Amino acid sequence: MTATPPLTRFDAATHIVSLSSQHGAGLLGIPSRGLRLTWRSESSTPGADQIAYQLATGPADGECTPGEVVAGPDSVAIPVGDLASGERRRFAVRIATPSGWTEWSDELVVEAGRDAGDLSAAVIGIPSEVEGPVALLRTTFQVDRIPQQARLRLSALGLVDAWINGVRAGDARLTPGWTSYGTRVLMDTLDVTGLLREGANTIVLEVGDGWYRGRMGFADRTEIYGDRSGAIAQIDTEDGVLVATDETWRGGFGAVRSASIYDGTVTDLRLRAEGVHEASFDDSGWTPASVIPTDLARFEPRSAPPIRVVEELGMTRTDRDGAVQFDAGQNISGWVRLVVRGRAGDVVTVRHAEILEPSGALHTAALRSAKATDSYTLDRDGEHVLEPQFTFHGFQHAEVEGPVEVLSATAVAISSDLPARSTFRSASEALNRFHSNVFWSQRDNFVSVPTDCPQRDERLGWTGDAQAFAATASTLMDAEAFWRNWLRDLEADQTDEGGVASVVPDIIRFEDMRMGAGPVDNMGRAGWADAATIVPWAVYEASGSDEVLRQQLGSMRRWVEHLRRRAGDGVVLPTEPFQYGDWLDPDAPGERPWEAKVSSDYVANAFYVHSARLLARAERLVGDPTRGAGYDALADRVAATTWERWGAEAAATQTGAALALEFAIAPAAERAAIADDLAADVRAENGRISTGFLGTPLVLFALSNNGHLDEAYLMLLRRDAPSWLYQVDRGATTVWERWDAIRPDGSIHSGDMDAGSHDSGGSMLSFNHYAYGAMINWVYRTVAGLAPAEAGYRRTRIAPRPAAQLDHAAASIDTAYGRLAIDWRIDADGLRATVEVPFGVTAELDLPVTDASVVTVDGSAASGPLSSGTHEITVTAPAVAGSERRA
């Protein structure tokens, strides 16, 4: 390693462009334990690299003191210790290159949330009906002087919005979000300094039931976590606690008469509590609040971005049969903001749907029992702006009824506020649109937890969907904090024996879910419960931070040991009464989507092997290498027996072959033949995909990793059903749950499913499921050619694979080190590519060459990996997939 230069030598060409924590930008009140810092650098010196760093730290109101110089290139997720409860601390960093030291970075100030033991507040509420009128809790308090800083600590058993002197505190929605409430509830910290005034101040909390007490799941259950909704709030300043929730508060009701996640909101503006935000408001007729007994230790500082409004879309209008229809042009999660002109007492109703029937009516059958309807009663003559509260809908279309003039409609899209991490475009407009559809499906379903769909009476954190999509999700968005938060709940909901639920947070009871003749065990289902190992590894690979592996190692071990105990002396897992299997295989009976072509026993044991191998990798990185070797040996034994029992039959299916190849179930000597047969099947079917939720993320990799890129492209770019691009041609703006959700004749799938008495109307049909969009990770790695050769892209593989049908692609990924990008195209001279490599990253070239190719980099013969900077690459006579077939 290059010697560290003396501290007096400076590199003016290199500078630190950002310094951040693992909790993202702008989040106040972060967890106090385990703070990690990441920085990015840029340099105008080609090939410059970090050879050492120095951190400085100090109190927020003091100076930073430099620490020791640390040799090495590390700049991602560097542990810097713990903070005290409520502490504000500042950090700066500088790095050394062979040319000298940079200037210090801009300072990063981080602020820890309050530990539960430091709270003076209690959870309070008033008696209220389940999903009935939204409670208003209020009090007044005195401010003698405006503090230097005031922090509102806010959370709820339910959902809460806070208002101080009539101004909404913060921009988060559906606060505090959904977690495994029996174990942990997130608490927000908001800067409310600017909302206070000298003298009398008023704070009002609006409290809804949300996921805590409202209707959720298949069995119309309410009060899943508790029979009372309530809120907790406290305002701290440098002088102490200004106000905190307790029995002195009073509560009543206002305009929102009911609020339900599934059903929507009913608002009667005539019942607004006029003046409630004023100190002079007379609340003597209201009910005294009471304390809801709660273990405050469950409340912990927020560690992931909250739900926010992420986009607003104008809607186009159509007048139809006495109603007004609006089209957002995009399927979203959120609601409609209406501007109407009407008279006092007029009732305005807004119904929502993802698609329209062939007749032009809203298609509402797929909502099952969810009403997805908001209604408003106007309190006066004139213009009104109408928005619902404590609900969201999955929709593209909305229909407005009522004796009013509708002046405008805006689709308000919400999501957990995760930064977009990547971009992609190509010569195929259909593929570009599908990429957009996948992004929107992630945005629409990452609403506090990774849900299956945002529209019907479900919206649950299905673990199978999550594991299938985790790698793609972590490419499309900076989702590390989101996943770490959700994985905490996955572990919290594990059984004592290590079993993992099918949905997290787990609200499903044994009798709630039926497939066929009887109830289905929700715990430990193959390909679903394996989210315990697959998601942490995907997050680590995308981020380069081992924090998620350290956090989840115990959970990963418990899951694999659970599988080992189930297998007993038989090596492989026994046949279960029910497995989801390769769910929604397009050849399975429409009403029995678990009856896939590939054996569920084979699938279960293939995932057992995969989980054991992922755990082995994690052990070698952050655990016990000896245990890692043991888990590898276990995986090899299970793989051998699995292949011996089920391999030949399973490999005749696309999913079975993909598992055999990608999970290394098949012996090495048989891999080529399996891949050849898979490719032959794809050619014979003209690219027809025949995989379900578990095979779809793997099948393109299984083809391209084994020399069958032609067939991978044949499948990728197919337009007939079933295929990805067929959905685009049918007007999809998100990813469908079923390959044939809309049939070629334009009819809509019934969604019927054999679910016994718990079928909620029988329709299992969503137009917004991200699982089939998991192949976008392959698009980035193979079409664009940006793949991590080391976790976090510290070493990157540049490996574009052009095709006759796709002669141009460009992509970028915002890695922990900076922007990694490629823009390539095929022209008469061959392949030309511009590649951007961020500071601190080495890029290995794996180009599409033939025996006749000549490769140049920046005008010279290629020689070794690329260092940081922008590079121009040419490849003459490149290999082009499908060129022989096109000829």
Structure description:
With 887 residues, the protein is an alpha+beta fold. Helices cover 22% and strands 30% of the residues. The protein has 15 helices and 45 strands. The strands form ten sheets. Strands 19, 20, 24, 25, 26, 27, 28, 29, 30 and 31 form a ten-stranded mixed sheet that branches. It is globular. It starts with 13 loop residues before the first strand and ends with a helix.
List the helices and strands and how they pair.
Blueprint: E1 14-21, E2 35-43, E3 52-59, E4 65-71, E5 78-81, E6 88-97, E7 100-101, E8 108-111, E9 124-125, E10 135-143, E11 150-157, E12 159-164, E13 167-168, E14 185-191, E15 199-208, H1 210-213, E16 230-237, E17 240-244, E18 250-253, E19 256-260, E20 264-268, E21 287-288, E22 290-291, E23 299-301, E24 307-314, E25 316-320, E26 323-342, E27 347-353, E28 373-377, E29 382-386, E30 393-401, E31 405-416, E32 422-426, H2 429-445, E33 446-447, E34 449-450, H3 463-476, H4 480-492, E35 514-515, E36 518-519, H5 531-543, H6 547-567, H7 600-622, H8 625-650, H9 654-662, H10 668-684, H11 696-704, H12 709-716, H13 724-729, H14 776-784, E37 786-788, E38 795-798, E39 808-815, E40 818-827, E41 830-837, E42 842-845, E43 855-857, E44 860-861, E45 869-875, H15 883-886
Parallel strand pairs: 14-23, 20-28, 38-42
Antiparallel strand pairs: 1-2, 2-5, 3-4, 3-6, 6-7, 6-8, 9-22, 10-15, 10-18, 11-14, 11-16, 12-13, 12-15, 16-17, 18-21, 19-20, 24-31, 25-26, 26-29, 26-30, 26-31, 27-28, 27-30, 32-39, 33-34, 35-36, 37-38, 39-40, 40-41, 41-45, 43-44, 43-45
